[in-house]
Amino acid sequence: MSVVIIGAGHAGVAAAAALRKLDKSINITLISDEENLPYHRPPLSKKTIYSENPSFDFLLSKDYYTNNNIKLIYNSPVEVIDPDNNCIMLLSKDLIHYEQLIIATGTQRRKIVINGSDLVKTLYSMKDAYAISKSIANSKKITIIGGGFIGCEIASGARKLNKKVTLIEAGPSILGRSVAPVFSKKIAQHHESQGISILTNCKATSINSNEVKTNLKNISTDLAIAGIGVIPNIRLASQAKLDIDNGIVVNKYLQTTNKNIFAIGDIANFPFNSETGRLRLESIQNANDQAKIVANNIIAIRIKKELLKYSPIPWFWSDQGDLKLQMAGIGNLHAKHHILQNQEKGTLTVLHFVNDQLVALDTMNHGLNHIYGRKLLSSNQIISLDEINKFGGNLKSLVSHLN
């Protein structure tokens, strides 16, 4: 039996490791389009780029792949998937056959389309991190375009290096699509108190070597970095005529419309109890959990056992300077948002309620509330605000009561 995995990010590497743990004899080929060992991406914006001599955290050691008989192919972009013949063709024109294929191609950077865009740095890969770390070290004034998680992480990291930082966001608030409005407001206030200049409803219109022009003002800058998000890397899946809709459409078992082809990680659009009935997540938790499910299901198909469904309680995190932000569940900007009172200074917990049921929570510097919030969300019980108030907002006590 042979399994080929396209993509050596978190999802692809975790799938290879999970498969090997379940079956010692299965042939596993892991294909990377980068020339280095697979590495952790989150640290790139959280710590790596703030050192003039950055180091990288590898997902697994080189010996692991060798000792576990996982064939890791470096620097080998896949040219095409041929589902009719159960094979893929590399850019080198080499063919690799499979019985099951896992697509874990993740995302690709979103291009910024303005005059002078070639002067804007973007952070996606190890190669980018090397370049940006040197640019940050040599710059005094830095402009960050995009107020999402990555933009805020870069802005706060650069500010800790005493750089003059301007963060511009096209929407009305930073993190506006990710957390409760009251939560994003608190984060913005903290960043501004640390000396970061935040401009909202602000769009970059052009860039030159020493200035970013926007609809509000011109910003003197030595370095411009875009943190405007990513898009699913669907090229191969589209060519293979798999269903595409904001990523690769998969069923509850993570199979695509071709039952021998699975998709996991940032690229997989899976069934979920949400407003649209489906969800695509960009998170390490999602990548790792889906990898375990798909490994189990590939083996289950082989031995004719029941497949596992993927039904997550999503969670995320972001390190922004002195702030540890942790989110659980899928927040709803139109939900009723409730701030837990009597919390320690420097912390914040915001609960999201839809139809008087807890659906998500955002925490700042409060790991315990994050952990117990996740337990509440996974309890398969309706958790109302009244229920939380009965315990004085103490999520740990409520969890203990439910158990």
Which strands sit side by side, in order, in the main sheet?
3-2-1-7-19
Helical content class: 25-40%
CATH topology of the largest domain: FAD/NAD(P)-binding domain
Largest sheet: 5 strands, parallel
CATH class of the largest domain: Alpha Beta
What is the CATH H-level superfamily of the largest domain? FAD/NAD(P)-binding domain
CATH architecture field of the largest domain: 3-Layer(bba) Sandwich
Name the average pLDDT.
95
Characterise the protein shown here.
This protein has 403 residues and is α/β, with parallel strands linked by helices. The chain folds into three domains: 2-108 and 230-303, 3-Layer(bba) Sandwich (FAD/NAD(P)-binding domain); 111-226, FAD/NAD(P)-binding domain, CATH 3.50.50; 322-402, Enolase-like, domain 1, CATH 3.30.390. It contains eleven helices and 26 strands. The protein has helices at 10-22, 42-46, 62-67, 126-137, 149-160, 181-193, 235-239, 284-303, 367-377, 385-390, 395-402, and strands spanning 2-6, 27-31, 70-73, 78-82, 87-90, 95-97, 100-103, 107-109, 121-122, 141-145, 164-168, 197-199, 204-208, 211-214, 218-220, 223-226, 230-232, 248-249, 261-263, 268-271, 278-280, 315-320, 323-329, 336-339, 348-354, 357-364. The strands form seven sheets. Strands 3-2-1-7-19 form a five-stranded parallel sheet. β14 (211-214) and β15 (218-220) form a beta hairpin. α1 (10-22) packs parallel to α8 (284-303) and α9 packs parallel to α11. The longest helix is centred in the C-terminal third of the chain and has 20 residues, at 284-303. 41% of the residues are buried. The mean pLDDT is 95.
